[in-house]
């Protein structure tokens, strides 16, 4: 009777050990990497627009790409990161 109880406890302990590990699943980390790449692309789109001559003002800094498109892409990347973190990993046993 006592040995069955100990074996049952040991079996549960092994299940808990196998489930512990990384906080998120493999798919979550892949989605986070994709979100990070989207954020980097947004910041790359924001870069540039400087003038060759410091005495001359360049209107290129006010382009649609730098003022509107790039911040939207960066924001979308951050929203995607939140989704990647909150997404439940799939259970392979089902």
Protein model, in words:
The protein has 94 residues and is mainly alpha-helical. It has one domain (22-94). It contains 3 helices and no strands. The longest helix is centred in the last third of the chain and has 23 residues, at 64-86. The protein is rod-shaped. The model has no long low-confidence stretch (mean pLDDT 83).
Q: Which features would summarize this protein structure in a list?
A:
94 residues; mainly alpha; 3 helices
Summarize it:
The chain has one domain (22-94). Helix content is 66%, strand content 0%.
Spans with pLDDT under 50 lasting ≥5 residues?
none
Total DSSP E strands: 0
User: Span between N and C termini?
Assistant: 33 Å
Strand content: under 5%
Q: Quickly give the structural class.
A: mainly alpha
What's the shape? rod-shaped
Largest sheet: none
Order of helices and strands: HHH
């Amino acid at each position: 009777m006592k040995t069955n109880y100990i074996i049952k406890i040991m079996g549960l302990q092994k299940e808990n050990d196998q489930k512990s590990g990384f906080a998120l699943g493999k798919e979550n980390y892949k989605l986070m990497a994709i979100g990070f790449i989207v954020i980097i692309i947004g910041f790359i789109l924001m870069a540039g627009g400087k003038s060759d001559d410091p005495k001359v003002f360049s209107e290129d800094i006010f382009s649609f790409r730098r003022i509107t498109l790039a911040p939207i892409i960066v924001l979308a990347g951050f929203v995607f990161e939140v989704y990647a973190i909150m997404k439940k990993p799939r259970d392979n046993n089902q």
